[in-house]
C-alpha cells in the first residue's frame, strides 16, 4: 500500500489516472506498474451504468456489491447470478405482453427497481436496464451465500413497494462497483424456467453465474 499525504490523495489519483498509470474504477484504483490494489470509499453505481443492453448490465453486475440498509445496519451481498430480459421483443420478458400496470416501470428510466411476486409467495428483485421504452430488466437470481431469487428478496426484506424506486442509497437498496478481479470467471447458460417463451428465446444464454 502506498503512503501519501491525506490531503493530496485525490489529486494524486487524478494525476495518475490522467497519465494512464492507474485504471480507475468506482472505489478502486489499480496501479499498473506495481499491481497494488488501493481501496478508497466505494460509491453507488449511477443510473448510467444500467442504461446499457440488459445482457451487458447482467454480466457487469456479477461481482458487484448489493447493499441493503435495515434498521440502521448495513448488509453487503456480492452478486453471483443474474438473468437478462432484453425488452418487449424478448418472449420470456414480462414486457413482451405490452404495457400494463405491473410492467409500466420496465419501460421507464434505467436504474429503477421492478419487484414482482410469483405464485403469490415469492418476491423477485429486478433492476430496469437499457433505454426508456425498451422494457428491459435484469433479475438478481443469487448473491453470495443465497441461491434463488425468492430467497434473495426474502433476505433483503423486499416487497412490491420497492417497484419504481431508484437504486440509490437514499432508498436503502443500491449497488456498488465491484473491485477488479483478474480471475473472475462467469458462466453463461439459458435462463431458468422460460420454456414458455419458445425454443429460440428459451435457449438464449442470458443467465450469468459466477463460476
Any overview of this molecule?
The protein is an alpha+beta fold. It has helices spanning 9-18, 47-50, 54-60, 149-155, 199-203; strands spanning 22-24, 28-31, 37-39, 65-70, 73-85, 113-118, 122-129, 136-143, 146-147, 173-176, 186-189, 207-210. Strand 8 and strand 9 form a beta hairpin. 33% of the residues are buried. 16% of the residues lie in helices and 31% in strands. It contains 5 helices and 12 strands. Strands 4, 5, 6, 7, 8, 9, 10, 11 and 12 form a 9-stranded antiparallel β-sheet that branches. The protein has a 3-stranded antiparallel β-sheet with strand order 1-2-3, with helices on one face. The protein has 2 domains: 6-39, no CATH class; 47-210, Methylpurine-DNA glycosylase (MPG) (3-methyladenine DNA Glycosylase, Chain A, Roll).
Structural class: alpha+beta
Count structural domains.
2
Evaluate the radius of gyration.
18 Å
Secondary structure: number of strands:
12
Question: What CATH architecture of the largest domain do you see?
Answer: Roll
The chain-level mean pLDDT equals 84
Oligomer state of the chains in this structure = single chain
CATH topology of the largest domain: 3-methyladenine DNA Glycosylase, Chain A
Described by the principal axes of the CA atoms, the overall outline is globular
> Can you write the helix and strand succession as a string?
HEEEHHEEEEEEHEEHE
Q: What proportion of the residues form beta strands (DSSP E)?
A: 25-35%
Note the total helix count. Answer: 5
Unreliable spans: 1-10, 21-40
Distance between the termini: 29 Å
Largest sheet: 9 strands, antiparallel
Output the CATH homologous superfamily of the largest domain: Methylpurine-DNA glycosylase (MPG)
* Portion in helices: 10-25%
CATH class category label of the largest domain: Alpha Beta
Amino acid at each position: 500500500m502506498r503512503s501519501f499525504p491525506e490531503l493530496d490523495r485525490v489529486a494524486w489519483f487524478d494525476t495518475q489516472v490522467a497519465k494512464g498509470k492507474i485504471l480507475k474504477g468506482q472505489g478502486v484504483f489499480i496501479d499498473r506498474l506495481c499491481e497494488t490494489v488501493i481501496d478508497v470509499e466505494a460509491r453507488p453505481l449511477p443510473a448510467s451504468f444500467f442504461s446499457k443492453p440488459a445482457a451487458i448490465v447482467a454480466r457487469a453486475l456479477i461481482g458487484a456489491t448489493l447493499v441493503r440498509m435495515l434498521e440502521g445496519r448495513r448488509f453487503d451481498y456480492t452478486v453471483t447470478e443474474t438473468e437478462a430480459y432484453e425488452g418487449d421483443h424478448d418472449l420470456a420478458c414480462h414486457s413482451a405482453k405490452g404495457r400494463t400496470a405491473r410492467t409500466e416501470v420496465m419501460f421507464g428510466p434505467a436504474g429503477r427497481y421492478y419487484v414482482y411476486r410469483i405464485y403469490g409467495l415469492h418476491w423477485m428483485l429486478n433492476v430496469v436496464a437499457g433505454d426508456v421504452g425498451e422494457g428491459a430488466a435484469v433479475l438478481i437470481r443469487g448473491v453470495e451465500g443465497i441461491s434463488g431469487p425468492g430467497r434473495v428478496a426474502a433476505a433483503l426484506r423486499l416487497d412490491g413497494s420497492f417497484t419504481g424506486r431508484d437504486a440509490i442509497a437514499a432508498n436503502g437498496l443500491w449497488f456498488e462497483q465491484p473491485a477488479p478481479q483478474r480471475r473472475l470467471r462467469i458462466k453463461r447458460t439459458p435462463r431458468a424456467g422460460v420454456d414458455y417463451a419458445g425454443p429460440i428465446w428459451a435457449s438464449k444464454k442470458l443467465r450469468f453465474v459466477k463460476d
